[in-house]
């Protein structure tokens, strides 16, 4: 059976609704969906069942995880109009001039936070726990750049909680999978230590990072980081009271894929969205 063709819209038909925001046309959407299907292969390989994380995260929970100390610049807060603003909205006043009140919640900046907070106080057992999820994530940035850097984007993560050795093995399998997937797609990636888990570049945690890196990124030839492997040690296990049976506080690790960035890297490598889609379809046969 032949593969259905994908509609190509005239150039310029779909415009950005704002800085850091994009609407994907059918070809780009097919690339994103196909890449997510390919990258979900890691979850299949490690037997990580699919989950759906929450659409909002409590600010109080993120505070306990040092989120605002580490990433004070990234958070996108969820606000709602005050009761005083409702009459104005009803008579057509511009919503941009009307007051908002905080809700105590933020939009997720990474998929794993919602999963980790949902496991607070649980025991994942002697054999540990693996979960996979894909969701929309949002980050305030100093600038935006096409699919490379967006205000809102899709992130696929495969999370492990369990023993220290299990966390190392999860990341080793993740690194192997990233390179395998890149090879199938004709992508050449470079691996490098990342320094972004801690905002305080001069503090003790930054020095610890230099001695014992906990995050490595895989980047396309233009420097766009499209995947990462992240070792959390037992930080979340201790902060959230997540145990791994007799092993005590759970160690955790995750492998993350920025889907729009994979789309960007594939087009960068193969020249056009159509050629990128042909390569993807060859790598993921129907």
From TrEMBL:
Residues 129-285 form the Aminoacyl-transfer RNA synthetases class-II family profile domain. Keywords: Ligase. SUPFAM superfamilies: Class II aaRS and biotin synthetases. InterPro entries: aa-tRNA-synth_II, aa-tRNA-synth_II/BPL/LPL. GO terms for molecular function: ligase activity. This is Amino acid--[acyl-carrier-protein] ligase. It comes from Streptomyces crystallinus.
């Amino acid at each position: 059976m032949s593969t259905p063709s994908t509609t190509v819209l005239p150039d310029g038909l779909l415009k950005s609704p704002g800085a850091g925001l994009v609407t994907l046309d059918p070809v780009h959407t097919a690339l994103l969906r196909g890449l997510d299907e390919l990258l979900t292969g890691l979850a299949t390989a490690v037997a990580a069942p699919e989950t759906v994380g929450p659409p909002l995260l409590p600010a109080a929970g993120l505070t306990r995880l040092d989120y605002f100390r580490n990433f004070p610049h990234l958070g996108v807060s969820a606000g709602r109009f005050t009761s005083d603003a409702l009459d104005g909205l009803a008579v057509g006043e511009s919503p941009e001039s009307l007051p908002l009140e905080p809700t105590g919640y933020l939009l997720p900046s990474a998929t794993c936070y919602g999963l980790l907070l949902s496991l607070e106080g649980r025991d994942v057992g002697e054999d540990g726990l693996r979960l996979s999820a894909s969701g929309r994530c949002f980050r305030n940035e100093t600038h935006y750049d096409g699919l490379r850097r967006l205000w809102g984007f899709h992130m696929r993560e495969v999370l492990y909680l369990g023993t220290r050795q299990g966390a190392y093995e999860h990341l080793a399998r993740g690194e192997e999978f990233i390179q395998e997937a890149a090879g199938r797609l004709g992508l050449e990636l470079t691996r490098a230590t990342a320094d972004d888990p801690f905002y305080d570049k001069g503090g003790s945690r930054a020095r610890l990072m230099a001695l014992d890196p906990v995050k490595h990124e895989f980047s396309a030839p233009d420097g766009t980081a499209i995947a990462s492997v992240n070792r959390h040690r037992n930080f979340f296990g201790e902060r959230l009271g997540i145990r791994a049976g007799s092993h005590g506080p759970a160690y955790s690790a995750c492998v993350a894929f920025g889907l729009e960035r994979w789309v960007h890297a594939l087009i960068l490598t193969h020249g056009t969205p159509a050629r990128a889609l042909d390569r993807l379809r060859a790598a993921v046969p129907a």
